[in-house]
Here is the input.
Amino acid sequence: MFNIFMCVYLTLMNIYYSIKRESWDSALLSLSASYNIFAAVDNGYSLDYEPVDKKNISAIAYNRPKPATPLKTFFLPVRENVTAELNSGKPRIIIGSPNCDVEALNILDELYLDESFEDVFYRNRRVNTIIISSDCFEIQDHCHCISYNVNPYSSSQADMAVILRNDQIILRVISEKGGEFVRNNLKAVPLTDKSEAAYVENRQRETADILRRTGKGLPDYKTTGSLVKRADKSIWQKYSVGCVSCGACTAICPTCTCFLLIDKPGFHKVKQMDACQYPGFERVAGGEDALGHLAQRFRNRYMCKYVWKPSKFKGIACTGCGRCIEACIGKINKNEIFMELAKS
Here is the structure.
């Protein structure tokens, strides 16, 4: 279905390279002539992706969760003209994506690279992007990736993973594309000090252990689907009271992909990202609306993520990033819903 990506993600884990932070920064600035480079930057107020330049390169955040913007926005713009001429432009490098975002690419690839109806714009962006993920060595309050069997470090989909230790950048090669990039563009040397590799792998385990402790009691992905499917309507009425139908939970989600196709003059079609939480999401021309009631729309989101999509796709539709909890104006915590269902 999407062999162009699957073929390059070989068993390259635990191949490490090392480069001084100063040399790494210099290399990125030099590469900016040939690539559009984005990185997770701490601007003092938030952590989010910004174009890399001399002013912010020292503020790139390593091994911290997680940029406010999900990785999907680099491949699925909020709005784009899909009848426009395909323009590759400069290739891109994206630095600092957590694995919850990287894992979300599995289901996005299934959706948009289906051989029967491939999205050429999505494919073009995927092919022309090098993803350098960031191992998470700390967590935020709502991180729960491990509960859904997603590790806080990448082992596929990304091309490399980056770790900062003191003044040293350690790169873990994940794909052949990543290995080729390191060899051709960086003055990095293979990491021969086993203690450095052991440090990385110990930190990975420590973060995973913290996530297991903080997520104790939260049902796993499959169990959640069973709970959601048989949940009484009263649970959806109870928790949807605080929902204002803003759609923030879907906009910020790394796996939500609903969109509208809008006809424009000149036979143009514009793809506009949509959200199942918007009123009128399923309203048809005759006025009927299967999701006309708030509690129905609210339930629909969880049925989509935990019941319907798992029945059709291999990739999971929730990777446990917790952004929907953080973005919710109504302070709705989906994990509280699932834990209540698990106890009932």
